[in-house]
Write a structure and sequence with these properties.
This protein has 172 residues and is α/β, with parallel strands linked by helices. It is built from 3 helices and 9 strands; from the N terminus they run βαβαβββαββββ.
Length: 172
């Protein structure tokens, strides 16, 4: 049976999210920002982030699958939900739960750029560079971690553990 090792408590997540929201609000003040949340893992982080922003934003979602039921990205990315909002000429901020290999994020950035946004930047709750395979720039990272498979606060392993209010390293 897998072991759950605590990584971030609720209070820490709240503080990190509020801090990055202040930075985003400052950087995008007076601009037209569209947040694009990556389903399913980022939905809780995105909801909390939006509540901390002090600027108006639009919100949309994409869904890209690359893990299946494993713990390592297959590298074979499938877009299963496309954006609905017109992002041409808009500033776009992709909101991720965790940036790991970078393959999915690279795919999503290339996808979004086809719609001619003004800018495409990245915000992630966790930036994990242990298995980074693609050079991808993370503009806003709440926390950098070295290794481990994270669950909780929206992140899952084979659709389990999303409901946990804190973040844990799932040790197999």
């Amino acid at each position: 049976m897998p072991e759950l090792i605590p990584v971030l408590k609720r209070e820490e997540i709240e503080e990190l999210t509020a801090s990055v929201a202040r930075k985003i609000s400052s950087d995008y003040k007076g601009r037209h920002l569209v947040l694009v949340g990556v389903l399913k893992g980022a939905f809780i982080f995105l909801a909390d982030l939006v509540r901390h922003l002090t600027i108006p934003v639009k919100v949309d979602f994409v869904r890209a699958a690359s893990y299946g039921s494993g713990s390592i990205s297959s590298g074979d990315i499938e877009l299963t939900k496309e954006i609905d909002i017109d992002i041409e000429g808009q500033d776009v901020l992709v909101v991720e739960d965790i940036v790991d290999s970078g393959l999915t994020l690279t795919y999503l950035i290339d996808y979004l750029k086809k719609f001619n946004p003004e800018t495409v930047r990245v915000c992630t709750l966790l930036d994990k560079y242990e298995r980074r395979q693609s050079r991808v720039k993370v503009d806003y990272a709440c926390r950098t971690i070295e290794k481990g498979f994270m669950v909780g606060y929206g992140m899952d392993y084979d659709e389990a553990y999303r409901e946990l209010p804190e973040i844990y390293h799932l040790k197999f």
